[in-house]
Write a structure and sequence with these properties.
Chain lengths: 101, 314
C-alpha cells in the first residue's frame, strides 16, 4: 500500500512527527507534515506542533519508514487477548515489602 | 422541564478529529485584543499542559514597565520597532501563498515573532509623548516611519523574501545581541527576549539559502539574482545618524554592526555556493523618513481598517 507522499503527486514527502512534552515522558506521535528533507522536517515540526510550548524535544521520520499492521487483520491480531484477564497483573497479590510494583 | 434533554448536548456534536476544547488554529495570533484572549484552551495530554485562558496579550510585551523613553530613545526605539513592524506586515502576505502549507506557517510564525518585537519597541517609543503602539502603527504616515528600506523591499517571489529575510535576521541578531547590554533597561529587556527568536529566523533563512543555492541551476540563478536585487539596501542598515551620537551606551552604533553582520551572511553564502553581490548602495534614507514609493501602498493596506473604524476592537 502506498504511503501518502510517495505517490509523486505531492512536491514534498510526508514525515511523521513525535513530540516529547517534558523530560521523563516519551515522545508521542502528534501528526504529520510535508518537508523536502529531514533538516527542514524538524523545523516545520517545530513551527507546526510546538507553537504553544507543547514540547521540549522533537523526532521526525519519513512516513514510508513506518511499517503498519494490516487493518483488515484486526480480528486475528487484536482480539486474542479477550478472555485472558490473567494477563493483567491486578489479579496477583503483591508480596509484602515490594515497593515499586 | 421539557427541555432537559437539550442541556446535555451529545458528544457527537463535537467536531470530528479534534477533541472538544482543542486549540483553534487562530489562537496565539497577536490580534489587537485589549483584554485577555479567553479561548478556554486546555492542552491535550499528548501536547503537554498548555493553557492560554489566563494570558493577557499585553502582559507578553517585554520591557517598558512604567519606564518613560526620552525623545532620543523613542526615536531609536522607533527605528527598530518600524523595521520589525514593516517586516511583519510583509511576511503576513505569505499566508496561503508560500510553496507549501508548512512554509505558510513558518513565515507566519516569523511574522508574528517580529510583530511582537515591534509592539514592544513601539509601546516603549510611545511613552515619550503619550502615544500607544496602535497610534504609532496606524496613525503615522510614511515620513514619520523610521524603518530602513530593506524592510519595505518587495516580497517578490519566495527567493526574494528569503534573501531579504537572511539579511534582516542577520542584522537583527547581531543588533539585539549587543542591545541586550544597553544601559537602557527597557531596550535591553526587549532585545534579550527577541534575540532567541531572531536566531531561529536566521536559521530558517539560512536553510533555504542552502537549498536554493545548491538546488537546481534554475534555483541557484534565481536566488543569486534575489541577492543582487536586495543588496543595494544593505548599506543603509549600517549608517550612523546624529541621534546615535546622543545615545552612547543606549543604542548600538549601526556602523559597528557592519563587520559582524556581513561576516555572518558571508559564511552562509559561502556554504550555499553563492556570491556576495558587488553593487552600489542605494540612497535609502528610511531613518530620516525618506522612503521608497512602496511604503505608501504597504501602509495603506496595513492601516485602512484602523482608520476606517477608529477605536474599533475585536
Amino acid at each position: 500500500m502506498a504511503t501518502p507522499g510517495e505517490l509523486g503527486t505531492e512536491a514534498w514527502p510526508l514525515w511523521e512527527v513525535f513530540v516529547r512534552a517534558n523530560r521523563g515522558l516519551s515522545h508521542v506521535h502528534v501528526g504529520s507534515l510535508h518537508a523536502p528533507d529531514a533538516t527542514m522536517a524538524i523545523r516545520n515540526a517545530r513551527d507546526l506542533y510546538t507553537r504553544r510550548g507543547e514540547g521540549v524535544s522533537i523526532w521526525v521520520m519519513p512516513a514510508d519508514g513506518i511499517t503498519t499492521s494490516d487493518p483488515d487483520e484486526k480480528g486475528e491480531w487484536f482480539e486474542s487477548p479477550a478472555g485472558k484477564n490473567f494477563r493483567h497483573a491486578i489479579y496477583y497479590t503483591k508480596t509484602e515489602g515490594v515497593k515499586h510494583l | 422541564m421539557a427541555t432537559t434533554t437539550d442541556q446535555t448536548a451529545p458528544d457527537s456534536a463535537a467536531p470530528i478529529g479534534r477533541p472538544a476544547g482543542a486549540p483553534d488554529a487562530s489562537a496565539g495570533r497577536a490580534a489587537p485584543v485589549s483584554h485577555d484572549i479567553s479561548m478556554g484552551v486546555e492542552g491535550e495530554e499528548a501536547h503537554g499542559d498548555v493553557s492560554v485562558d489566563e494570558l493577557a496579550l499585553s502582559v507578553e510585551l517585554s520591557g517598558a514597565d512604567g519606564a518613560v523613553a526620552t525623545p532620543d530613545v523613542a526615536e531609536y526605539a522607533m527605528w527598530l520597532g518600524d523595521d520589525a513592524l514593516i517586516l511583519a506586515q510583509q511576511l503576513g502576505w505569505w499566508i496561503s501563498r508560500a510553496p507549501e502549507l508548512e512554509e505558510d506557517v513558518a513565515l507566519g510564525n516569523i511574522g508574528l515573532d517580529v510583530l511582537g518585537h515591534a509592539r514592544s519597541f513601539l509601546r516603549y517609543a510611545g511613552t515619550a509623548d503619550g502615544r500607544t503602539e496602535d497610534d504609532l502603527a496606524y496613525w503615522r504616515d510614511e515620513p514619520a516611519f523610521r524603518s530602513a528600506w530593506l524592510f519595505e523591499a518587495p516580497n517578490g517571489h519566495f527567493g526574494d523574501t528569503i534573501a531579504r529575510q537572511l539579511i534582516a535576521s542577520a542584522f537583527q541578531l547581531e543588533l539585539y545581541r549587543r542591545l541586550a547590554d544597553s544601559s537602557d533597561p527597557a531596550l535591553a529587556a526587549i532585545a534579550t527576549k527577541s534575540v532567541k527568536e531572531v536566531a531561529y529566523h536566521l536559521d530558517h533563512a539560512a536553510q533555504w539559502m542552502l537549498r536554493l543555492g545548491g538546488g537546481t541551476d534554475e534555483s541557484h540563478a534565481r536566488i543569486q539574482q534575489s541577492l543582487v536585487d536586495v543588496w543595494p539596501l544593505v548599506d543603509e542598515l549600517f549608517r550612523d545618524e546624529p541621534v546615535i551620537d546622543r545615545l552612547e551606551g543606549v543604542a548600538v552604533r549601526p556602523s559597528t554592526l557592519r563587520e559582524p553582520v556581513l561576516a555572518r551572511i558571508q559564511e552562509i553564502l559561502d556554504a550555499a555556493g553563492l556570491e556576495t553581490p558587488n553593487v552600489e548602495p542605494s540612497m535609502a534614507g528610511g531613518r530620516r523618513g525618506s522612503h521608497s514609493t512602496r511604503l505608501g501602498y504597504l501602509l495603506a493596506e496595513m492601516q485602512v481598517l484602523a482608520r476606517s473604524h477608529p477605536g474599533a476592537t475585536w
